[in-house]
From TrEMBL:
Any matching Pfam family: DUF3159
Transmembrane segments: 56-74, 80-98, 105-123, 143-166, 178-202, 214-236
Protein name: DUF3159 domain-containing protein
Keyword Kinase among record annotations: no
Top-level lineage group: Bacteria
Record's keyword annotation contains Transmembrane helix: yes
Keywords: Membrane, Transmembrane, Transmembrane helix
Length: 241
């Protein structure tokens, strides 16, 4: 190993003041999704829980699906398509409140659907219903990409908090490398959505745009969750019984 490499390994890596708080926030969100590497769970269980089970799948898919179907069948009835989409999201939130289950997932979907619908109503263009999703993908993709490239992977911060090691993973070359590639993979997913969907947005093809949004949603999210889970489990193997 070169002298430069030795100096890199010997140099203490002090975390910035906000790293612990950010790691705790990200780790808490991951734990609520069922993505806790310290938990004894199979990959299939983890992926299904991260998707929210059948309820989570329906909450993610139905509002957008309702909008795409209605707008395709009745292109002049923008208000109807948006109203049904927001109504479906509101119904899911109401059911969660009645059952006294955590409403955060459905509430987030409702807020997103309402904001998108408000923008589309304001402009009178159905394709503008997808603009908030573009912004979300751009923000998530950029945050994951930049954090991975500068060596402070958001995935690493979350895992470090969940595994009780804080930012000590940054002193391990193998962990830094894995978290770098995981961050790049997640950033690529968000940017791929933009690369495929933005041309359809500018072309005004609402049906194709809505369909691809669904196809590039959970069907791509689930495999990447599985890959992330397996990679993290390889870094932090379960203790022997």
């Amino acid at each position: 190993m070169s002298a430069a490499g030795d100096r890199e390994e010997d140099t203490p890596l002090e975390p910035p003041s906000a790293s612990d708080a950010l790691g705790a926030a990200l780790g808490g969100a991951a734990r609520r999704m069922g993505l806790d590497p310290s938990a004894q769970a199979g990959t299939g269980q983890v992926v299904w829980k991260a998707m929210g089970g059948w309820r989570g799948v329906l909450e993610s898919v139905l509002p957008s699906l309702a909008f795409v179907v209605l707008f395709t069948l009745f292109p002049d009835a923008l208000v109807l398509a948006l109203g049904v989409s927001v109504g479906v999201a509101a119904l899911f939130t109401l059911v969660r409140l009645i059952q006294k289950s955590p409403p955060s997932a459905a509430l987030g979907g409702l807020i997103a659907a309402a904001a998108a619908a408000a923008l589309a109503l304001w402009t009178g263009r159905g394709e503008d219903n997808f603009v908030p999703g573009f912004l979300t993908n751009a923000v998530y993709g950029t945050a994951l990409l930049v954090s991975a490239l500068i060596g402070w992977s958001l995935i690493g911060l979350a895992v470090g908090f969940l595994m009780g090691e804080g930012t000590a993973w940054r002193r391990d070359r193998r962990k830094r490398r894995v978290f770098l590639w995981l961050g790049l993979a997640w950033a690529a997913l968000f940017y791929a959505r933009l690369a495929v969907q933005l041309p359809l947005y500018f072309a005004g093809d609402v049906t194709a745009l809505g369909t691809l949004k669904l196809v590039m949603g959970l069907p791509l999210f689930a495999p990447l969750v599985a890959v992330t889970w397996l990679a993290v489990r390889a870094l932090y193997p379960r203790p022997a019984a």
